[in-house]
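Give me the fold.
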Amino acid sequence: MLLFFTSWGDGVCPICLDLDSSNRPVRVRIQLATAQSNENMRAVNP
């Protein structure tokens, strides 16, 4: 488990689960500062 705080807000950034060829989890990626997350941030923090 990993916890960290940012000023980005909940539900703004996409979270991706990468699977191996047997559909087992191998990596969780949290993408900060995508075009969509920046737009979402502007919507919740005008």
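The radius of gyration is 13 Å.
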